[in-house]
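Let us begin with a simple case.
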Amino acid sequence: MILAILALVLSLGTVAAFMVLLSRPIPIPIPPAAYLTALAVAMVLAIAAVLRSRGRSRRWIAFTALGVSVVMLGFASYFNFVVARVPAARSAFVVGQPAPDFTLPDAAGRPVRLADFRGQKPVVLVFYRGYW
């Protein structure tokens, strides 16, 4: 019974910690190996609890722990490997081809076109990421 309770606490605690860390004003990055390993350990503990449970009265706790840990690990794996994947994006630029014309504001806010500099001098574009 102790293994089953430990498995439940570990799996539910992992999910709760994940949600708390992501809900902060500045989210703390959580490596997937950390939460997937914790959930896998919870599942192993739940399997051990099922194998060690002998009486019918306590067997339901072990099966509940196993079910919860399998569902949590499955959802976390799906989230990590399917939902959170960054899709491969094709580049809009081809090496050796001229860049498409565009207009952007300069540091003073005045519009500047790339075509105004074409053939005159090299152009360096700097993109600031911002504070997000």
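The second case is a distinct protein. As before, the sequence precedes its structure tokens.
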Amino acid sequence: MQMLETYLNDLIGKEGNIVNILREANSAIQSIKSINENSESETLVPMGIGTFVKAKILPNQKLVVNLGAGAAIEKDKDSAINYIESRIKEMEVALNETNAKKQEVIANLEQGKQEMNRLVQEGRSKNQ
């Protein structure tokens, strides 16, 4: 039972992380779409620990997209959005799988609790 509860907590944490990634990805798409392709625009670029620097985004400027494992690639606006959308689909699949596992663990925990209650009741009835 304790192992199932630990596993459930891990799944809940994983689910939260995936939801955060999805939120960040959707926010990135909205930010990319808001870039005006005909004129310069300004934005704040995070430098870490709540520090930002103003930067100008030039028209038709390429975006650098993190591919993972320390690799990144330059992509145009539409390609970057397509890449992020494909990652969102992967994360949605992972979220659904995690949710299914979580529901299975919850059902197993409930079944285990019912079995423990039954055993406790049998033990009490034998002692009386």
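The chain has one domain: 2-35+62-127. The first strand starts at residue 41 and ends at 48.
Keep these points in mind for the review questions at the end of the chapter.
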